[in-house]
Design goal:
This protein is an alpha+beta fold and 170 residues long. It starts with a helix and ends in a 5-residue tail after the last helix.
Length: 170
């Protein structure tokens, strides 16, 4: 009996661990998971990456930057500038164990009973990370020498760097 519960628990934990990271791709609907962009001027766009069930904020930011780099190259430009960025961070993922205690009782006819339960959780996946549902960048394209500023990004370099860190199939 205990072995069956251990197997069920292990399968549940592995399912949770594999479903956490969103896959990089275009959104199939205006509020669906994936990237989307809206042109606001000839060289200016809003680029958004959504994960409706939430994902690590840093991953969503990387995916939005990757889409901005791809869009820059598709429009035959060399670099892009991020004028504004917003991330709707929801919560922090837990980074340490926690313990919960529950006490209950009940009766049925002349019989009564009580119980105490203790639960312990251990997070899987390592460090704590902010969780978000979307990241939006307002970008504009540029050519020639890239400005020496933290908000200016070389499109080829960003695309290559982020793709190299992506998991296979992402």
């Amino acid at each position: 009996m205990i072995r069956s519960w251990l197997v069920v628990a292990a399968l549940a934990l592995s399912a949770c661990a594999t479903a956490a990271a969103p896959i990089y791709g275009a959104a199939l609907s205006p509020t669906g998971a994936g990237y989307s962009e809206t042109q606001i001027e000839s060289n200016r766009y809003f680029v958004t990456y959504r994960a409706p069930r939430g994902a690590e904020a840093g991953l969503l930011q990387d995916y939005a930057l990757l889409r901005a780099a791809e869009l820059t190259l598709q429009n035959q430009h060399e670099w892009f500038w991020v004028d504004r960025r917003t991330t709707d961070e929801q919560e922090q993922r837990q980074n340490g164990p926690s313990i919960g205690v529950g006490i209950g009782g009940g009766s049925w006819g002349r019989h009564s009973g009580g119980g105490v339960g203790v639960g312990v959780t251990f997070p899987i996946g390592g460090q704590s990370a902010p969780v978000a549902r979307s990241t939006m960048l307002e970008i504009r394209f540029g050519d020639g020498p890239k400005p020496d500023d933290a908000n200016a990004y070389d499109a080829r370099s960003v695309a290559g760097s982020i793709r190299a860190r992506m998991a296979p199939g992402g």
